[in-house]
Amino acid sequence: MRAINKLLLIVFIGLLFNQNGFSQPIDSTHTVNKKRLRTFVIASGTAYGLTLVGLNELWYKDSEKEPFHFFNDNNEWKQVDKVGHFYSAFYFSYGTSKALTWCGLPQQKANLWGALTGFLVLVPIEVLDGFSADYGASVGDLAADAAGSAFFLGQSALWNEIRIQPKFSFRRTSYAPLRPEVLGDGLATELFKDYNGQTYWLSFDMDKFLRFPKWLNLTVGYGANEMVYATDTENTAMGYHAYREYYLGLDFDLTAIKTKSKVLKTVFALVSIIKLPAPTIEFSSKGTRFHAFYF
Asked: In 3D, which of 87, 57, 85, 60 has the Cα closest to residue 73?
């Protein structure tokens, strides 16, 4: 996944958590609050539209145009980019559902529209890619987007809550300076572009399954390393040996901390989308390693 999806996600999450009264309870009769709904639709739609226009100018303006076409990139970056699509679609779905519930929609309807929106907001990115000579629309990306939205909707339907939460973490690596134009030049761009430093997690809310402290979760993670080029063939030709990394560790659920402060609730909710440093075991072709605090 390129920077575009994450930039859109950051704009969207920031917009949601700056809605006045977002955490206020809705009318138990499920009467739609038209003022809230109108505010959400206008604000989110405007931000989304402006972001797409800006991205088109920054990302595609100098790219040569071609008739719409597809490009199979499923063998690139050890599929870390696809997991990123899954992550983004999940949170677009989850965030939209939360917002629609705040607007007064019944929970099931909010979840359904949230999941549909979570998928559809990412489709224009593939359309723009499809007309670009440098890229091409990706069926794999669309499948990952659909999976992320379905993961949200499936949990909502099964448990009426989210018990397995996708999370993200990042660390700077030594690979970005080798190809800064691709992997990023500086922390701000490396965060989005350097797949070697990205790890994606599924954090299991264990107290919903077993007798477990409410604030302590178990998590599994996925990442990859030594990816200076997109494919294994390219990396091998240049002397690099890309490999996958799997993780098993602990995670902390700050939302389990009881507080009446809306500010703290917002902070805890925002922090919950990232993996906090905690003891973790790493498994890869390089062997098994224990990290006292892995992020």
From this structure: 85
